[in-house]
Every structure is written in structure tokens, then in C-alpha cells.
């Protein structure tokens, strides 16, 4: 009750136009829906996303995180009527290009010259640069990181961009890969799941039944799902649950679809 | 955008760890403070902007965040500590957020740890990836240090990171999530960036020499700059932020300068200003052949003889911290009283490149035009990530 009383609506209502996701053992939308409902993972593990729509000359330079971002981000525009070069973008990642970084540190330790391509690919926002190149997108692009709060803060960035430019959709992508050793051994949480999830968001009309409204409260309400925040959010959206609550330090964030509101 | 107050600034770099020292050194740059470091991959000695003033140990309750990067952020934070307490008191801790830009966060700690692990199979006992190196850790550290309770996160888009942090911080105020945000950037000299820029053949063999015919690369620097950004306008304000993407190349800028022009135009539009209302432009000015060619074309296309300079020969290129650091230098110019509103001098050999449009590079002692109350700062990054920030003074 207190949480309801103290909750405050954040930003304008948002409509999720489409989503796309990829993981080594969840390579199709149907597999994701099945996983979200039953927790079933495919036995077939695909080493890297095919990225068939990416020119070969670029594809062979792409990191794993970049390929996951491209696979999902190019797909998410399908059937939406939104042109990939017209959307604003927010990319969230806890670790960015940690695998590339680990490899470069091995080279530095061995005192051998670094690969220029590897170094260029080591920055946290590498994947967004490739997305821009492939789609010729010149719109605003942000990349943020906040550990387990990365997704919530990325969503806030996205709704902020939509508020400023209401006529432009916003691509929101969360991607992370299993960290390299020795970084992985220092992580307390099980980061054993490489994945990317892309959502295409636009500003909703206030009477839109599918519009998502976000409220923030200081409550200690538990998360709706016991999972990584972006997976919880996707599960909520796919399973058509009434609302989804995610936590960041000090706050609970709750998404509700318009048609569940009184 | 509605102007937002930039009511306090703390800064540390190779030029010093107080605003007065840094201000003096960018206005009267008599000698280079850059010092030699040795590249691990080639054994070459190159110049870098290493902070030589001693850094404070972190508070005991936050020792798990200990690394050089976070110590630099701590040094900048201590300078604005009283203003942080003031905004927490004024607005409430839950209305104060943290947005910092960084390209490598505490990678310095991970380098030491990984090298130790490769040599011995063991990580150092005081190493903690999550609190020292994970990209969000420096923002978490400042959140815990300040005891603020608003959102905190790190923007990481390489060399435009902390310029873009101003856009993200404004976003938190615009969405009415925060009334004040500690915004800025921090980065540390580390093997990765020193050796990485060397492999791209972008490291200068001396002090960088932006826009000169003889320019041959950049120097890497380190440091931190933290501002208090408030909903209420102050004497100096954040008036506009403009962003764009080149969509041209993974690491090289669009040589036509179109992306840079777009970022500067978007910043002007955001601030509701015309180009001739900008009295000083802080250039990205790395001293690399491609950046300077692109930026000179862009500035020439948009402005009519705006006084401009690059401080990177003085500070080194502070990468993810550069945007905030150089906005800080602009803030220092605006913070001075007339007629002493001195602009940062452009340190170079004075040999113009005939292939570049000629810019009006600021000489030592150059003052901001009497009518000018707005300045702009440019930041351009890998992946064609561009950001321009406009600061203005009320009177």
C-alpha cells in the first residue's frame, strides 16, 4: 500500500513496437518465448550470431557482443515501419568488450604490439559504432553501464530521448557476454549467459491500451521475477503479466500496461 | 533546453589539483608538464599527462573501490564536497544522481591484477573487479561517497563519454527524477590506451601540436572533473548539448567534418543560439592529422572566426574525462570577472597547415569578447560519436 501511495510516474507512456533477442542457445524468437515460459534452453549452441544482413567486410571485424547487438537490432525493425537509420539508440552493457580487453592485456603482458582492429574494438560502445555504419544511422546514440542497474538506467535514457524527440523511435539494447578469465572468477553473480535483447520503443498515445507506464517508489517491494533485469522485463512483456517491478539501489521501478490501470 | 546551473567544479589533471593552479596553467602555458612514460609493447618513451600530485587514500569504508582511477575521482570530489552536501540538504538525497563519463574506468587495477595472474596464477588479494574496474563502479563509488540516493551510472563512449554525461544528467532532471546531478568524467593512464594509440600510430613523438603543419599525434593524459549540475540556473549554466554519429568508420572521423558540424549545430539549437553568439570554442584538437583536418573544416564551415584553442598539449588527451575536463576549462573562463575573462591559450609551434582552413587560435592573454557570454566545447570519439556542449554565463 505504501508503495502505491509513494509511487511517482516517470516520463511519458511508451509503446514497445517489437523485440528481438539472441543467445548462443536461444537463437529464434520462438525459442525465447519457450524459455521465458518454461526455462527450457536449446541443446544446440550456436557459436556466434550469423548477422546475414551485415556486409562481410564489416562482419569479420565484429566482436561477439557487436554481432549479438547487430543480430537483434537489425531484426527488431522488421515489420514496424521504422527505418533503422531514423531511430535514436541506447545501448546498455555491464561489461562491454571485456573479452577483447582480456585478450589485449595478454598481448601487453607478452610485450607484443597490439592489433589496431582489436584495440579499436575494445571500447565499451564498439557495437553502436558498427550499428551506425551498417545502417548509416547518424542519430543520437548513448552507451551506459551501471552493473545490475544498467537496464533500468538505459530505459530512463530511452524515455528521456523520446521525450525530447517524440517523433523518433528509440532502439534500446542490452547486451553482455560471459566475462573472460580472470575477471569471471572475481564475480559473485553467475554471469554465465551471453545474450542481447533489443526493444524498439516509441512514444505512446495516452489512450493506447498497450502503452507502458513507469512508476518509481521507495518501497522494498520484491522484483516480479528472480532473473536478470532485462530478462525479467522481457518475460513480463511476453507473458502479458499485469506489471513488472525491478529494483535498483534505493528504488523500485514498476511498469504497468495501460489496460491494467483502473 | 532550459539552462541548468553548473554551481561547483572540482578538477585534477597534470596541471594541478586546484582550480586556481589549473586556470593559471591553461591561460599562461609557459612549459609542458607532460612527463615520459615507457610503452610496454615497444619499449618506446612517450610523453603523457600523468598526475604527479599525491592522491588521497579512499575513506576506510570504501577501500574496496581503491584504484588510481577512483582516487582521481575522489580528488575532484573533495573539491566540491561542500556543494554536494548543500544540494543534498536542499533537494534531498533521493533527488541527487550521479552520471560520470569514463572510457576505461579502473582498468589500471585490472592491468596489475591480470599481469599478476598471468605470472603467478593468483589475483592480488585486494583486487575486486566489480568495485574497481566494472564500468559502472566509479559512479557507484561517487554515489556511496556522496550518500546521494538518486540513479547513478557511467556513460562510456570513449573520448566523448563525459561530454555525453551532461546530456544524460540533463535527462535525469528533465524527467523530474533528480534536481541535482554530480556530473563529470574520469580516466587514468593505463597500458591499454598508451599502447593502443601507439598501435594506431596516433601518439606524438613530442608535445602534441594541434592544427600545425608539423602535427604528428596526441599525448594521453589522465584526470577527473566533477560538476554539480542543478535544476535552478546559476551564474554559469549548461545551456545546450548536441550529439551526432558519423556512421563513417570504426575509429577514424568523417574527413568532411559533417558529423562534427551536426553535433555543434545540435548544441546551438539545444541552447537556442546562433553561431556568432559563441565567444570561445574549446576544440577537440587532438593533434592527429585526421582529427584536426576534419575539425578545422567543421569549425570553418559553421563559425566566422570564433576564437578557439585546444588544451590537449597541456593536459594530454584525457579520453573519457576530456569532455568534462574541457567543459571545466570553459567554466573557469566564464567564472572570471570582466575584464579578466581570459581564454585558454593554444600551445603550438605556430606553423600553419596550408591544407587546413585557418582558425583563430587563442594567444596567451586573449580575453573573451566583451559581448560574449557563451562558450562551446567539442568532443569526438571512436565510432564517430560526437558531442558538443554549450556553457553560458548569466551576466
- The helix tally of chain A amounts to 9
Q: Separation of termini of chain B?
A: 19 Å
Helix count of chain B equals 11
Major sheet strand order of chain B: 5-4-6-8-1-9-14-13-10-11-12
Mean pLDDT of chain B: 96
Order of helices and strands of chain A: HEHHHEHHHEHEEEHEE
Unreliable stretches of chain B (pLDDT < 50, length at least 5) are: none
Count the domains of chain B.
1
Specify the CATH class of chain A: Alpha Beta
Topology as H/E string of chain B?
EHEEHEHHHEHEHEEEHEHEHHEEE
The CATH topology of chain B corresponds to Peroxisomal Thiolase, Chain A, domain 1
Walk me through what this model shows:
The complex is a heterodimer of chains A (262) and B (395). In chain A, a hairpin with a 2-residue loop joins strand 7 and strand 8 (251-257). Chain A has nine helices and eight strands. Chain A has a single domain (16-210), classed as Peroxisomal Thiolase, Chain A, domain 1 (3-Layer(aba) Sandwich), CATH 3.40.47. With 262 residues, chain A is an alpha+beta fold. Chain B has 395 residues and is α/β, with parallel strands linked by helices. Chain B has one domain (4-393): Peroxisomal Thiolase, Chain A, domain 1. Chain B contains eleven helices and 14 strands. Chain B has helices at residues 19-27, 68-91, 107-120, 129-133, 137-146, 161-174, 191-199, 258-271, 289-302, 312-315, 322-335, and strands spanning 4-13, 35-38, 45-49, 96-101, 152-155, 180-187, 220-221, 223-230, 236-245, 278-282, 307-309, 360-361, 374-381, 385-393. Chain B has an eleven-stranded mixed beta sheet, sandwiched between helices. In chain B, a hairpin with a 3-residue loop joins strand 13 and strand 14. Chain B is globular. The chains are: A alpha+beta (262), B alpha/beta (395).
Amino acid at each position: 500500500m505504501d508503495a502505491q501511495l509513494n509511487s511517482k510516474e516517470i516520463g511519458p507512456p511508451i509503446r514497445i513496437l517489437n523485440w528481438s533477442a539472441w543467445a548462443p542457445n536461444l537463437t529464434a524468437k520462438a525459442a525465447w518465448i519457450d524459455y521465458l515460459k518454461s526455462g527450457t534452453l536449446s541443446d544446440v549452441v550456436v557459436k556466434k550470431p550469423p548477422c546475414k544482413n551485415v556486409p562481410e567486410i564489416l562482419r569479420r571485424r565484429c566482436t561477439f557482443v557487436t554481432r549479438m547487438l547487430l543480430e537483434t537490432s537489425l531484426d527488431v525493425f522488421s515489420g514496424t515501419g521504422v527505418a533503422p537509420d531514423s531511430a535514436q539508440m541506447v545501448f546498455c552493457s555491464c561489461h562491454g568488450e571485456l573479452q577483447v580487453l582480456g585478450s589485449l592485456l595478454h598481448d601487453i603482458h607478452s610485450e607484443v604490439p597490439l592489433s589496431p582492429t582489436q584495440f579499436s574494438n575494445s571500447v565499451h560502445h564498439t557495437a553502436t559504432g558498427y550499428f551506425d555504419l551498417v545502417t548509416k544511422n547518424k542519430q543520437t546514440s548513448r552507451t551506459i553501464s551501471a552493473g545490475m542497474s544498467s537496464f533500468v538506467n538505459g530505459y530512463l535514457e530511452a524515455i528521456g530521448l523520446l521525450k525530447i524527440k517524440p517523433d523518433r523511435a528509440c532502439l534500446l539494447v542490452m547486451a553482455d557476454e560471459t566475462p573472460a578469465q580472470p575477471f569471471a572468477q572475481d564475480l559473485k553473480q553467475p554471469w554465465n549467459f551471453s545474450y542481447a535483447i533489443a526493444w524498439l520503443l516509441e512514444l505512446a498515445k495516452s489512450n493506447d491500451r498497450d502503452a507502458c507506464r513507469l512508476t518509481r517508489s521507495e518501497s522494498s517491494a520484491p522484483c516480479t521475477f528472480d532473473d536478470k533485469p532485462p530478462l525479467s522485463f522481457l518475460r513480463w512483456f511476453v507473458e502479458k503479466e499485469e506489471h513488472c517491478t525491478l529494483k535498483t539501489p534505493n528504488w523500485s521501478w514498476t511498469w504497468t500496461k495501460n489496460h491494467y490501470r483502473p | 533546453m532550459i539552462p541548468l546551473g553548473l554551481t561547483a567544479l572540482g578538477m585534477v589533471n597534470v596541471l594541478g589539483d586546484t582550480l586556481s593552479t589549473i586556470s593559471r596553467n591553461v591561460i599562461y602555458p609557459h612549459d609542458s608538464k607532460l612527463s615520459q612514460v615507457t610503452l610496454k609493447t615497444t619499449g618506446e618513451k612517450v610523453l603523457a599527462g600523468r598526475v604527479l600530485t599525491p592522491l588521497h587514500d579512499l575513506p576506510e569504508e570504501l577501500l574496496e573501490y581503491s584504484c588510481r582511477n577512483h582516487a582521481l575521482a575522489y580528488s575532484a570530489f573533495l573539491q566540491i564536497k561542500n556543494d554536494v552536501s548543500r544540494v543534498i540538504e536542499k533537494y534531498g538525497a533521493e533527488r541527487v544522481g550521479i552520471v560520470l563519463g569514463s572510457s576505461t574506468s579502473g582498468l589500471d587495477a585490472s592491468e596489475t591484477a591480470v599481469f599478476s595472474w598471468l605470472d603467478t596464477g593468483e589475483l592480488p588479494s585486494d583486487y575486486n573487479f566489480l568495485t574497481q574496474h566494472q564500468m559502472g563502479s566509479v559512479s557507484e563509488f561517487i554515489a556511496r561517497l556522496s550518500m546521494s540516493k538518486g540513479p547513478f551510472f557511467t556513460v562510456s563512449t570513449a573520448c566523448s563519454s563525459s561530454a555525453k554525461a551532461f546530456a544524460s544528467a540533463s535527462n535525469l532532471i528533465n524527467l523530474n527524477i533528480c534536481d541535482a546531478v554530480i556530473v563529470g568524467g574520469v580516466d587514468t593512464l593505463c597500458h591499454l590506451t598508451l599502447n593502443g594509440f601507439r598501435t594506431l600510430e596516433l601518439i606524438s613523438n613530442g608535445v602534441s601540436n594541434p592544427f600545425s603543419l608539423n602535427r604528428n599525434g596526441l599525448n594521453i593524459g589522465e584526470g577527473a572533473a566533477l560538476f554539480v549540475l542543478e535544476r535552478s540556473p546559476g551564474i554559469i549554466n549548461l545551456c545546450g548539448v548536441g550529439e551526432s554519429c558519423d556512421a563513417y568508420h570504426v575509429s577514424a572521423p568523417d574527413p568532411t567534418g559533417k558529423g562534427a558540424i551536426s553535433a555543434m549545430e545540435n548544441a546551438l539549437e539545444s541552447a537556442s543560439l546562433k553561431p556568432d553568439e559563441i565567444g570561445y570554442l574549446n576544440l577537440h584538437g587532438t593533434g592527429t592529422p585526421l582529427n584536426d583536418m576534419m575539425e578545422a573544416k567543421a569549425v570553418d564551415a559553421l563559425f566566422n572566426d570564433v576564437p578557439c584553442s585546444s588544451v590537449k598539449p597541456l593536459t594530454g588527451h584525457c579520453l573519457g574525462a576530456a569532455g568534462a575536463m574541457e567543459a571545466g576549462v570553459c567554466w573557469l573562463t566564464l567564472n572570471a570577472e570582466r575584464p579578466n575573462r581570459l581564454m585558454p591559450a593554444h600551445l603550438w609551434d605556430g606553423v600553419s597547415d596550408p591544407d587546413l582552413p585557418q582558425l583563430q587560435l587563442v594567444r596567451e592573454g586573449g580575453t573573451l569578447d566583451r559581448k560574449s557570454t557563451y562558450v562551446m566545447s567539442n568532443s569526438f570519439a571512436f565510432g564517430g560519436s560526437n558531442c558538443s556542449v554549450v556553457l553560458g554565463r548569466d551576466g
